[in-house]
Amino acid sequence: MSKDEYGVLLYYKFASITDLNSLFSFYHSNCNSLGLLGRVRLSPNGVNVTVGGLLSALEKHIEAVKSNSLFQGTDFKLASSHHPLNDKVAVECGFTSLSIRVVKELVTFSSYPLLNPPEVSNAGRHLSAAEFHSVLQSARQLMKNGSPTDDKQLVLLDARNLYETRIGKFHAPSVETLDPGIRQYSDLPSWIDDNSELLRGKHVLMYCTGGIRCEMASAYIRSKGAGFENVFQLYGGIQRYLEQFPDGGFFRGKNFVFDHRISVGSSDTSIMGACLICGSSYDNYSSRCRCTHCRILVLVCDSCQKHRMDFGSIPSVEDGELATVLDKNDLKTVCSDSKISSQLPSRNAPRKLRILCLHGFRQNASSFKGRSASLAKKLKSIAELVFIDAPHELPFIYQSCTEAKNSCAPPSGQHAPPPENCKRKYAWLVASDFGGKVEADWKIANQPFDPLQYQGQTDGFDVSLAYLKKMFSEQGPFDGILGFSQGAAMAALLCAQGDKLKGEIDLRFVILCSGFALPLADFGQKPINCPSLHIFGSDPGKDRQITSHTSRYLASRFEDGCSVIIEHEFGHIIPTRSPYMDNIKDFLRRFL
After folding, report:
1. For residue 8, with 0-12 CB atoms within 10 Å meaning exposed, 13-18 middle and 19 or more buried, which class applies?
2. Nearest 5°: CA angle at 220, between 214 and 222?
3. The pLDDT of residue 326
4. Rg (CA), the chain
5. Residue numbers of the domain that contains 176
6. β-strand 154-158 against 203-207: which pairing, if any?
7. Where is the Rhodanese domain (predicted)?
């Protein structure tokens, strides 16, 4: 390589950085003095760098970085390339300027707080390109020192996004390859959680573009404990593998890269990708065509672009430049083709969240749906709300005039409406003296209504649990539960069950409105591990049913770092005006 050639440098390093300001100053000074352009990301946990410039300048940068003991053992991946043009590809990839940022995470591993964030120190064992190739070549050959052995099945796990795997991936006839089909890297933890049984007890060989994504993902798999210990990752990623095996080895197609090169291939010129419109072989993302609905990159060949149906233009995600976009109407006639539709995310295809809604005590699905109409309307673009009645049917009761100022009794000389003309009321939890038998007519309450009656309604959980298992089986899957008042208490009890309900009631999140914790053993002393949104009134006395202190205590029972609290100035309601509605949407968008 001539030192006057242009090149691209990639490297990352996980390490504890105590002085981010000094490191920021170093990169700002060094990169500008050497004329380097690209992205530098700094966090308290390390650095992630992709920069381009003259090869001679990149080599000087490497020497300067190596002088800092922090970067001992860093793998600097340097490759020659063409000079970036000032086009939309270079702009979108950030190769027309220098961007240095301090971030929380080097790579965003999850879009919502994880219950047990992975420690990169627990990452899978690194395999060199030669070792990785050897394992694939003799998948069941015994290897020493903790390497894969023939007593457990070997699987390949691709840690990249769907649009990357469409144009290239590893293929070994004797080894199962798992392609999560995710839209973005932050979807991978959910895929791992949902498909953990595909990995349990197996030797998992992971790979990605340059290695950094495997560091976090392999640590996350290993954090699951027994049965997930044997995780290995390709050191240096696909880039190092193709350098070692220029004919491609077990890798087919091209390696998608996040710079102006777009993709890097081997001497094998076979094409894996296909045009979304006509289905012909094609693997060039230079047109930056995207689906308008989910923004994922899609492949559209030159011919179809020339004669395509109308395309629109919208700003690209980061840089505000215009990118070509494929409208969903253009997909109507082609998505039935399995080869073509495989370009769109399978599990993570754009869809609304499905949320099961649990009403409060002495309510029903119909009344709760009516009270939540404004909420449903404002969430209609991202969520579908499903309402069901609780299993415990309650009797029709009213208080006599002598027992309550605001009597529910029929006026003097009149009769209560026939029960068949009234909508039944239900509960998730009932008092210990609840007989379960519903009277056919109205009856007078045997005591005044007690605003704290919910504290004594602790029976009937097993019946409600069995009922909800049936609902999840027949009407699911559901992404989460929204519970109001007693419905929130019931939802919290489900969360407290932990892994006991896995496979029957799987929840990605809960929304608890005017919720409360019941004095049951299920809550115990162990924090509840489930992403949660808690909505309740902030002012004492505004919510006359459930005090703010009670709801705040329920929120405290959830794991630190995975709960969000929205306090409002209203009463026993779910607020739908700004800024509360914006906060609710922000929470839900984490799971889209």
Report:
1. buried
2. 100
3. 47
4. 29
5. 120-272
6. parallel
7. 150-250
CATH number at residue 46: 3.30.70.100
Calculate ∠ Cα 481-485-489, nearest 5°. Answer: 60
458 token code pair:
């602790």
Does 98 share its domain with 128? no
**CA pseudo-torsion sign 434, 440, 446, 452:** positive
The ranges of the chain with pLDDT < 70 are: 1-3, 85-87, 111-116, 140-152, 292-293, 307-350, 396-422, 434-455, 520-525, 540-542
Residue pair 148/328 in contact (Cβ under 8 Å)? The answer is no
Q: How many CB atoms lie within 10 A of CB 286?
A: 12
Of 31, 93, 208, 562, the active-site residue reads 208
Question: So what's the pLDDT on residue 402?
Answer: 47
81 and 146 in a single domain? The answer is no
Residue 345 is predicted with a pLDDT of 52
Indicate if 208 belongs to the active site. Answer: yes
Q: Which residue bears the tokens 């790979």?
A: 207
* Cβ-contact 227, 121 below 8 angstroms: no
What are the CA-CA distances from residue 402 to residues 155, 224, 408, 444 (Å)? 74, 61, 11, 11
Q: Tell me whether residue 85 is in a domain.
A: yes
Using CB atoms within 10 A of its CB, is residue 402 exposed (0-12), middle (13-18) or buried (19+)?
A: exposed
* pLDDT, tens only, 24-55: 999 999 999 999 999 999 999 999 999 999 99
At residue 390, the pLDDT reads: 95
367 and 498 co-located in one domain: yes
Q: Which of 231, 247, 272 is the last residue of a domain?
A: 272
**pLDDT at residue number 164:** 95
Q: Could you tell me where the DSSP H helices lie in 195-310?
A: 212-222, 237-244, 302-306
Q: What is the pTM of this model?
A: 0.55
Residues 60 and 125 in one domain: no
What is the DSSP secondary structure assignment for residue 182, as one 8-state letter?
B
What does the pLDDT read at residue 476?
A: 86
What is the pLDDT, as a whole number, of residue 562?
76
Strands 383-388 vs 353-358: parallel, antiparallel or unpaired = parallel
Residue 18 CB neighbour total at 10 angstroms: 8
Report the distance separating Cα 509 and Cα 531, nearest Å: 5
Helices of type H across 81-211: 88-92, 129-137, 162-165, 188-194
Q: What is the DSSP letter of 385?
A: E
d(CA 552, CA 545): 14
Residue 86: its pLDDT value, please?
58
